[in-house]
Amino acid sequence: MKKITLLGLFLFSGLTIYAQDNKQWTLQECVDYALENNISIKQSELDTQLTDIDKSQAVMDFLPTLNANSSFSVNTGANINPTTNQFENETFRSASGGVNSGVNLFSGLRNWKSLQRSKINAIASQYQLDKMRDDISIYVANAFVDILYNKEQIKVLESQNRITKENLERTKELVEAGVLPQGDLLEIKATDATQNQQIIAAENDLFISKIGLAQLLQIKDYQSFDIAEEDYGLFPDSILEEDASTIIEKAKEEVYDVKVAESNLELAQKDLELARTLYYPTLSAYMGYSTYWSGTNIDFSTGNTMGFFDQLSTFDGTSIGLQLSVPIFNGLTTRNNVKRSQINVERSKYLLEQANLDLEANVYQAYNDAKNAKKSYEAAMQTEEARKLAYEYAEERYKVGLSNAFDFNQSSINYENAQSDVVRTKYQYIFKVKVLEFYFGIPIDQINYN
Fold first, then answer.
1. Which residues constitute the signal peptide according to the record (predicted)?
2. Considering only CA atoms, which of 156, 172, 226, 163 is closest in space to residue 191?
């Protein structure tokens, strides 16, 4: 997951929007907006369009070529008249025109292999785009859950502080009545001040986490940016009932890391085939038509200068033939290109193997993280319940004067820490399960917590 986090630092550039007043963004809206407006995704979409153009061009390469040409010149001095093929030492005008067509008959199946490569490249480009979308979705979800955690942490701290303020008022009355010493009041006041500091720090953490998500979306109005207030309680975790090996096999179908590596290997293999086609001779057919005109040509039967159209019909001609080109020696260029392509194939095989190993490691890590997060959350819930009972017991003892303020505050601090641990482990659990579900093919932006 570190790779995903690092990658996200480069992916989220160039999204521009200004938040509307009081708009609260859901996770679905955040992810959808990022996928729609992220510049890196837009660039990747342009790459897919380029691969479509390449595929279209590969199809067009099977068709014959057809070209027309024409020229006009004014010649002085001794020049060859193109219509008579004789030297003429005078100024004359001449023109020529023609149409040529050619078709590749054989070149080692290069055109066919180029078409296959263009199709593979189009698929690879789409895989890259889909992988980028997945990475962005995970990064947005992580930032979104971080805000949820900070929001609930503030609620816990404020609830604890309300109880402390109630105890502060009660203690003040008991001190004024001479029941409790002044030190107990000072102890409660210190606890109240500490809790106020914690609330301020938590509010700052919340603001920073909002800025983090807003910057991912390039929202400029940080003060107004906020996410939707929803109650995220316990949620289904049936994904943990799946075996890790089953999730790995599913991930290979749903996650694009391995697919990208597989398509890159196919591209390298096709490049090798294309490099080898240069060993083969090439055979092409051509056909052409041309005609000439000169301003000095004379019709000897009449003694008059020949007309423009008469010359075009008289001095025209056609050509048709085959052209064979056999590679004999070109400085070992073809051989070295083949060797380079073979090395790229081997490198792509290693990258594919590494992609499979990385995916397996990431899934196992996500699987263990989710299971441990669940255990941590359940343990935190049990600890909170125990700390709550201990706090209530300490509070009763303090009220009747059987305990001092220091012991009571220690019990209160332990209860506060237990509540904070519940919040922290809860949202860690949420995100870890969502990452595991992502590997199983469940979109990261689907949160259906009960």
1. 1-19
2. 163
Question: Which of 447, 444, 428 lies closest to 371, judged by CA?
Answer: 428
Counting every residue, how long is the chain?
450
Q: Is 202 helix (H, G, I), strand (E, B) or coil?
A: helix
3-state class of 284 per DSSP? Answer: strand
Question: Own/partner pairs for 325-329, CB < 8 Å, 24+ apart?
Answer: 325/281, 325/282, 325/283, 326/281, 327/278, 327/279, 327/280, 327/281
Structure tokens at 450: 């009960």
Task: Compute the distance between CA of residue 146 and CA of residue 153 in angstroms, rounded to an integer.
Answer: 11
How crowded is the C-beta side of 224, counted as CA atoms within 13 Å? 10
What pLDDT, on the 0 to 100 scale, is given for residue 349? 96
The helix (run of H) or strand (run of E) holding residue 22 is: none
* Tokens 């040509």, located at residue: 297
149-191 pLDDT, tens digit per residue, is: 899 899 889 988 988 898 888 888 878 887 778 888 888 899 8
Model confidence pLDDT, tens digit, residues 324-383? 999 998 888 999 999 999 999 999 999 999 999 999 999 999 999 999 999 999 999 999
Query: Class for domain 2-65+111-280+331-439, per CATH?
Result: mainly alpha
Separation CA 444–CA 438 (nearest Å)? 6
Strands 226-227 and 24-25: parallel
Of the candidates 159, 157, 158, 182, the residue with the CA atom closest to the CA atom of residue 171: 182
Tell me the two tokens of residue 148.
């949820």
3-state secondary structure (DSSP) of residue 282 = strand
Q: Which residue has the tokens 């689907």?
A: 446
Rounded CA separation 401/174 (Å) = 10
Over the stretch 384-429, which tens digit does the pLDDT of each residue have?
Answer: 999 999 988 988 888 777 788 888 888 888 998 899 899 899 888 9
Count the neighbouring beta carbons within 10 Å of the beta carbon of residue 259.
Answer: 20
What lies within 8 Å, CB to CB, of 176 at 6+ separation is: none
CA angle centred on 172, ends 167 and 176, rounded to 5°: 150
Quickly list DSSP for 43-112. Answer: HHHHHHHHHHHHHHHHHHTTSPEEEEEEEEEEE-SEEE-TTT--EEES-EEEEEEEEEEEEEEESTTHHH
Alpha-carbon gap, residue 414 to 408, rounded angstroms: 10
Q: How far apart are CA 435 and CA 423, in angstroms?
A: 19
